[in-house]
Amino acid sequence: MLPLWTTRSMSESASESGTDSLTWISWFCSLPGHEYFAEVSEDFIEDDFNLTGLNALVPFYKEALEMILDVEPLEEDSLKIPDVSIVESSAELLYGLIHQRYILTRQGLQQMVEKYEAGHFGYCPRVFCHSHPVLPCGRSDLPGLDTVKLFCPNCIDNYSPPSSRFHGVDGAFFGTTFPHLLFQCYRELAPSPIAPKGTNSTPTSSSSSNGANKATTSSSDLKSEADESRSNKPTTLQPNQIGQKTPQARLYTPRIYGFRVSELAKSGPRMRWMRMRPESLEELELVGNVVESRSVTTAGLKTVRG
Ligand SMILES: [Zn+2]
Prior knowledge:
The chain is mostly helical. The chain is about 40% helix and about 5% strand. The protein has helices at about 5-10, 25-30, 40-45, 60-70, 75-80, 85-100, 105-115, 180-185, 215-230, 270-275, 280-305; strands spanning about 135, 150, 155-160, 255, 260. α4 (about 60-70) crosses α6 and α9 (about 215-230) packs across α11 (about 280-305). Zinc ion (ZN) binds near residues 124, 126, 129, 132 and 152.
């Protein structure tokens, strides 16, 4: 008896020879729209520990697992299945959920890094990211809630894939953790949170002397605070603890007839301030300290109020 999947691959490419050597996993990853998937190693799938809990999420779990591993089902088992297409969709769901776990392993991360460096996931559509490569990312770890999104490590934002063929791929098959864990493990690929010196100073920033340029003011405040703290406190942050790649740090400036839109305008460029990067390790550490002291204060206030 032929493995179940051969019926589909034979009907899709009847003239293709060598389907015998094509595994279900290779075939699945070669389908249009499945370009983001890594081929999960069979060793990983055969280890029951890696599949813990998935039988509760996938209907026809046993049959789906057999299909993924190209195991021929027993004659009496195959008679119980009402429709092969049900098992096919179960196999797709099961493979996706296994994939979510696999790409967090050392081997899986390495495979995804190779795809990332080859540009298999595409590039950030934001102009000032200058075609920075992106990674697939889910907004949920549970299937059926959202489709796959693309995460850009340069602007730290999520985008919809440009082609509609990815709009049917479940985001849970990549999960919420994957891109962030990858950049924790491969810091040489992550854009540094520190901008090259002079990035934040704009030629017309002198107009901020009247207090109109809030973002520049707050940034320079931070800088002078950083200068003060530098003398009192050594930085605990090591340069190798953050991204190693030079970031694409240029920011978009909205203009009307060539004049910059005031940052205090209701329609002002607030995103500019949000996307600004510190220019030194000390400044970066200060940002963390400010956030920390703020959360301590907020927690304190809550305790007082509560
Ligand atoms: Zn980007």
